[in-house]
Design goal:
Strand content: 5-15%
Distance between the termini: 57 Å
Number of strands: 17
Shape: globular
Largest sheet: 7 strands, mixed
Number of helices: 25
Length: about 625
């Protein structure tokens, strides 16, 4: 018997083959305990990873991870995979700065075949790997593991369609943790599908087809009848008709927590020629009762108490997400034309209260951001006011739709972009640091970012009232604690605000960096330096008069943004100076340089990028060529 703590003996997945069935079952429980214990300390995606423990073990047991390629769609369910592929010692550093990523990462391990973080990409990537194997003459297999939620993304079906046409050896594992199938039907369909797809059955089927094809005239007709009969039998007992139509061999549904069934099924699939889809039923949060009862709340969590499931963050603050949700509800109370839209992120975007109150005006379109944008555009043409609440990183997926379907037609669609800027531990696939750069280049777009939660609700009102495309971007995390006005009002578009005057330089900040700019100005004041601070509010259109006035008064300008420097807010200010034929004495743009920012806490990453108060102060002193010894020692 495998004793407690023996997970540490599994350094490579090939060692699984030496374990008995009972030992594999015990290993699954030990992996679950390790995942729960680690995520309770570091935070992370708990329920998804707990649901695929047996699935992960079975995959590594049957296939050779050193040569076969596993592509985890989204990738937030890959914790067990990481534990089985040589990263046990580092697992405690999960999602911490300098530690291992919460997602598959090719630079982290040879077992991470494809970097992921956004959904619906695995089938396309897996097909590319399968074709590459074919061209190289390799017998290695590509296995794409995709959840039922990710199958709502159009890209998944594009991949399936192409894979069926190319008929290469691709295995798609559909991890279904939502569909409810009765035990009897599930067991029968599993039995039929496995038997009809078994190695012997497949061989006999091919032999019979060859014989029937040799009979002139009659053979082809009989062959078509037999094929339809088999397909009808499978489709009657299973939900596999769609995949059969796409030329996939369908196997399932299979109980995703029965290791014996999983291993048997994967061994069958390994020997099938052409594309195969294996339908696996799992339970999110499996093995942790609190997560099983409420998988949504335990999908992604911060550090928590294992016994109670309660967050270890005892300070209960409002978040920008909640402020947005409340403002949406308030606006909808008086505006029957207001529509709320999200792409499978009801709670994540704060629209849950809106959805409960105005169910007829709320639409969750699934993981389909491209569709969400054009769907909103259609609503806007008929006089409605759609607000698409979406994480900044996910709006990137609908760039073309924002440009062509909304901005080109100048339609009044509002984009409420949550998690803008540096989001923290989820890392480079989730940082929302590109939206200012790509949105401000689009004609007709109004783009703004609030300095605090009160300004957020007024900006939402501004965007809804505007007769054209508008976007509001706001950060992940707690708000600053300012008072919220009861009455929402529209701001004058293109007007910023002067927060403090100053004669030595002006700091022009936008969004989440405004507070840091104010703190930096206070620190500089202690050194006898007077820094003016402007809250730009609008990235497009800029408050040209306000920025030019203080740039000319001080001659020295610092811009600060939580966005890429390339094409971002600072670039917009430089363009303004060029248009006004103005050359400041000196200027510095602060933001994210030409790199992908790693994972880590928001505080660490903002310091790394030099956009916190310390970084702004340092930049100001350098701009002023300030040589006060105390200051240089204090800030390095």
């Amino acid at each position: 018997m495998m004793g407690k703590g023996q997970l540490s003996c599994i350094d490579l997945p090939c060692q699984l083959k030496g374990l008995s069935h009972q030992q594999l079952i015990e290993l699954a429980e030990e992996i679950r305990a390790r995942i729960i214990g680690t995520v309770a300390e570091t935070g992370g995606h708990l329920a998804p990873s707990l649901g695929v423990v047996e699935l992960t073990i079975a995959l590594h047991y049957v296939f050779d991870g050193a040569h076969d390629r596993f592509i985890w769609d989204v990738g937030h369910q890959a914790y067990a995979h990481k534990l089985l592929t040589g990263r046990q010692k580092e697992f405690g550093s999960l999602r911490q700065y300098g530690g291992i990523s919460g997602f598959p990462k090719r630079s982290e391990s040879k077992y991470d075949a494809f970097g992921t973080g956004h959904s619906s990409t695995s089938i396309s990537a897996g097909l590319g790997i399968s074709v590459a194997n074919h061209l190289k003459g390799s017998q290695a297999r590509a296995i794409a593991i995709i959840g039922d939620g990710s199958m709502t993304g159009g890209m998944a079906f594009e991949g399936l369609n192409n894979a069926g046409d190319l008929a290469k050896n691709l295995i798609v594992v559909l991890n279904d943790n939502e569909m409810s199938i009765s035990p009897n039907v599930g067991a029968l369909s599993s039995f039929l599908s496995r038997k009809l797809s078994g190695k012997t059955s497949m061989y006999l089927k091919r032999e019979m087809e060859d014989v029937l094809k040799s009979i002139p005239g009659i053979g082809a007709n009989i062959l078509q009848v037999l094929r339809r009969s088999v397909d009808s039998l499978i489709s009657f007992f299973t939900p596999g008709m769609l995949f059969q139509a796409l030329e996939f061999q369908y196997i399932g549904p299979i109980n995703g927590h029965r290791l014996d069934r999983l291993i048997e099924t994967f061994e069958i699939a390994r020997n099938v020629d052409g594309p195969v889809l294996i339908h696996v039923l799992t339970r999110k949060g499996k093995g942790y009762e609190l997560a099983e009862k409420d998988p949504t709340s335990f999908h992604g969590v911060g550090p928590f108490n294992i016994a109670t499931g309660k967050s270890l963050d005892t300070v209960k603050c409002l978040s920008y997400t909640k402020v947005f949700g409340r403002a949406m509800k308030k606006l909808a109370d008086s505006d029957p034309k207001l529509i709320g839209i999200t792409a499978a992120m009801i709670q994540g975007t704060g629209l849950d209260c809106f959805a409960q109150t105005y169910a007829d005006r709320f639409f969750d379109v699934g993981i389909a951001e491209q569709h969400a944008v054009t769907f909103a555009a259609g609503l806007a043409t008929e006089g409605f006011k759609p607000v698409l609440a979406v994480y900044s990183t996910f709006l990137q997926r609908a760039y073309d739709q924002v440009l062509h379907d909304v901005c080109l037609q100048n339609l009044p669609v509002v984009f409420a972009m949550d998690r803008a800027g540096l989001v923290g531990e989820d890392g480079p696939t989730h940082h929302g640091v590109f939206d200012l750069s790509y949105l401000r280049s689009m004609p007709n777009m109004v783009l703004m970012a609030p300095k605090d939660e009160n300004e957020l609700q007024h900006m939402l009102k501004t965007a809804v009232d505007h007769d054209g495309p508008a976007a509001v971007r706001y950060p992940r995390g707690d708000v600053l604690g300012v008072d919220l006005d009861d009455e929402l009002r529209s701001l004058e578009i293109g007007k910023g605000e002067l927060l403090r005057p100053g004669k030595d330089l002006v700091i022009v900040a936008v969004g989440s960096t405004v507070q840091s700019a104010k703190e930096a100005a206070l620190r500089l004041e202690e050194e006898g330096i007077e820094a003016a601070v402007i809250n730009a509010r609008f990235i497009k259109p800029l408050d040209r008069e306000l920025i030019m006035t203080w740039a000319e008064k001080t001659g020295r300008v610092i811009t600060v943004e939580e966005n890429m420097l390339a094409g971002g807010f600072g670039s917009a200010v430089l363009e303004l100076f060029e248009e006004e034929s103005f050359s400041p004495k000196s200027m510095k743009r602060l933001g994210v340089s030409d790199c992908f920012v790693p994972h880590g806490s928001q505080a660490i990453l903002r310091n790394l990028c030099g956009i916190d108060a310390e970084g702004i102060e340092r930049a100001a002193l350098k701009l002023l060529d300030y040589n006060h010894g105390k200051v240089l020692r204090a800030i390095g």
